[in-house]
Design goal:
heterodimer, A: alpha/beta, seven-stranded mixed barrel, 8 strands, 38% strand, B: alpha+beta, Ubiquitin-like (UB roll), 2 helices, 6 strands, 16% helix
């Protein structure tokens, strides 16, 4: 089983985001670096949910927003490690819709269950496989760390917060 | 032009996140890319040779699907092409 390492601030940020958008689904991207154990996520970027027609049980991120997130990641020396979204009043397990719409092979998909506006369980699933035909979700261990390890230029969380002050705050 | 490769496809592109490639149009640039890195082809195109539905192509900040000439749009050395698989889901 692979491990997804998240800084405490990222872990809390994605859970709070789910509470903020309740009863709608939240969504966003996870930025980090890859190691032998798995992804080390040091930053998250909130994204808008374009599925305003059914935001309580669907999410979608506008591709142009993904282009900009990818650009931001590159400028910071990071990669898009995965994505997160919430399941309002529903378990933190991937759905058939999540699976059908998952195309970022090798990336982590983090799901937080939000029950009555309160974040409960957060799970992560690695989209394993090498093609659309053999892809599968594998549950990951989530390791929440107080400080960033092996981040570019040995940045600590404070340093990252300073350079990420322009990130999307929707 | 520069083609930006998303995280999941870098393993099929020599581990690179950005590749300088020649070509007069988006289509030519993509053909050049997949000629150099053949493993990318099945991830970007259907068996019929069309761009997969979940693969978004952005010429600079413009969705190629909505450009007048689509994949036949002219490109220059300063242009960037971002390959972005879609992100969606829900319970």
């Amino acid at each position: 089983m692979s491990t997804l390492s998240l800084t405490k601030s990222v872990y809390e940020a994605i859970r709070v985001h789910g509470e903020e958008t309740y009863p709608h689904e939240c969504c966003g991207a996870l930025l980090g670096t890859h190691s032998a154990e798995g992804w080390r996520v040091v930053d998250s970027v909130k994204a808008g949910n374009t599925r305003t027609d059914s935001a309580h049980n669907r999410y979608s991120i506008a591709p142009i927003e993904l282009v900009r997130i990818q650009r931001t990641a590159r400028e910071k020396g990071l990669e898009i490690a995965g994505f997160y979204h919430s399941h309002p009043d529903h378990p933190a397990q991937w759905s058939q819709t999540d699976f059908a719409e998952a195309h970022w092979l090798g990336c982590s998909y983090v799901i937080t269950s939000v029950a009555k506006a309160k974040a409960t369980v957060t799970n992560s699933f690695l989209l394993a496989g090498t093609t659309e035909e053999d892809k599968r979700f594998e549950q990951e261990t989530i390791d929440v760390q107080d400080r960033v390890q092996n981040a570019p230029e040995e940045m600590d969380e404070q340093g990252l917060q300073e350079i990420t002050s322009t990130k999307d705050q929707r | 032009m520069t083609i930006y490769i998303p995280t999941p496809l870098r393993t099929f592109a020599g581990g690179q996140d950005a590749i300088e490639i020649g070509g007069a149009t988006v289509s030519e640039a993509l053909n050049s890319l997949t000629s150099t890195y053949p493993e990318l082809r099945k991830h970007l195109f259907t068996n019929e040779g069309k761009v997969r539905a979940f693969v978004n192509l952005y010429l600079n900040d413009e969705d190629v699907r909505y450009l007048p000439e689509k994949e036949n749009s002219q490109v220059s050395g300063k242009d960037t092409l971002s390959i972005i698989p879609s992100i969606a889901g829900g319970r």
